[in-house]
Design brief:
The chain has 2 domains: 188 residues, 3-Layer(bba) Sandwich (FAD/NAD(P)-binding domain), CATH 3.50.50; 119 residues, FAD/NAD(P)-binding domain (3-Layer(bba) Sandwich). Helices cover 24% and strands 27% of the residues. It is built from 7 helices and 20 strands. The structure holds NADPH dihydro-nicotinamide-adenine-dinucleotide phosphate. NADPH dihydro-nicotinamide-adenine-dinucleotide phosphate binds next to α5.
Length: 318
């Protein structure tokens, strides 16, 4: 439930920005605590899980579930508890005073006593047409989510940072061979992760290699590599192509306002969801570059709602 301020803006106790597992979980907790949350879904309602297929590692779904269906369940639960769920994108913020102000769709302003940011992150892609065409059909940006479907098969992973190293190691325990595609003659990953990758016998590293094309019509069947030193091309047979070239936190509108690391992840006080501004909390992938799982995002959404409730109580606003 919202009220109107004397500036004509809508005013709420708790505004949640984002509709992935973090945002909806925050909404469920905030609604049950009678904070009457208003949630704006952003341009991709349901978030990153709506572009994955089967989710098998979220507890409570013993048979697994399709990502989009799971996010509809999250939405229904948040709505049933009384969350006001709306389609709209937060385009600007003014956190210079209280109440906090958030602009939606470059038009209206919402005033809020507390704001929970759950805007997520977006996987970076190579941007080649075959990668796009086979997305969800063997092309994936999450080895932990989708690696299991390629048990015993040969797979490829592109990237050479800590994420790629970690995911290559994860895949090496499930798959037959893991072809790691590294565009330079060295890896960016930390030394310890590199050592582990280099010592794993079924990880085959292709140095100075770029992805020319992901092969296959309806599903991934291989990948064509281009050696950027020699200009030579070669094809390898694989059943899956994992992209692990980094993520981009969706935090642009908070730049210069909230404390962030150099990559744009919002900083929270360790062990809490509190940002550097009182009443503003962050949860999910926008503040987590390490775990990035639906279940950890949901957990941090719960933390944000509990932190917001405590804040409102202490400020005499709830
Ligand atoms: P990074 O930005 O660190 O690495 C991205 C990797 O992808 C680089 O090797 C980069 O190559 C490569 N890359 C980028 N674009 C392309 C492209 N178009 N084609 C081919 N390769 C490309 O991202 P990460 O997600 O790995 O890590 C992000 C942050 O999170 C880091 O600070 C990392 O340390 C941290 N992290 C920590 C973990 C942990 O502590 N357990 C686990 C995971 C992440 P190049 O090197 O040539 O630029």
């Amino acid at each position: 439930m919202s009220t109107e301020t004397n500036t004509g803006n809508e005013k709420v106790s708790c505004l949640i920005i984002g509709s992935g597992p973090a945002g909806y979980t925050a909404a469920i907790y905030a609604a049950r605590a009678n904070m009457k949350p208003l949630l704006y879904q952003g341009i991709q309602p349901g978030g990153q899980l709506t572009i994955t297929t089967e989710v098998e590692n979220y507890p409570g779904y013993p048979e697994g579930i399709q990502g989009p269906e799971m996010m509809l369940d999250f939405e229904k639960q948040a709505a049933r508890m009384g969350t006001d769920i709306r389609y709209g994108l937060a385009t600007k913020v003014d956190f210079s005073g209280h109440p906090l102000k958030v602009q939606i769709d470059e038009e209206k302003w919402i005033e809020a006593d507390s704001v929970i940011i759950s805007t997520g992150a977006s996987a970076k892609w190579l941007g080649i047409p075959s990668e796009q065409k086979l997305n969800g059909h063997g092309v994936s940006a999450c080895a932990v989510c989708d690696g299991f479907f390629f048990k015993g098969k040969d797979v490829a992973i592109v990237g050479a940072g800590d994420t790629a190293a970690e995911e290559a190691l994860y895949l090496s325990k499930l798959c037959n061979n893991v072809h790691m595609i590294v565009r330079r003659h060295e890896m960016r990953a930390s030394k310890v992760m590199q050592d582990r990758v280099l010592k794993t016998s079924n990880i085959i590293i292709h140095w100075n290699a770029e992805t020319d094309e992901v092969l296959g019509d309806k599903k991934v069947e291989g990948v064509r590599l281009l050696n950027n030193q020699t200009g030579e091309k070669c094809e390898i047979e694989v059943s899956a192509f994992f992209v692990a070239i980094g993520h981009q936190p969706n935090s642009d509108i908070f730049k210069g306002v909230l404390d962030m690391d150099e990559a744009g992840y919002i900083k929270t006080i360790p062990g809490t969801s509190k940002t550097n501004i009182a009443g503003v909390f962050a949860s999910g992938d926008v503040q987590d570059k390490i775990y990035r799982q639906a279940v950890t995002a949901a957990g941090s959404g719960c933390m944000a709602a509990l932190d917001a409730e405590r804040y409102l109580g202490e400020a005499g606003l709830h």
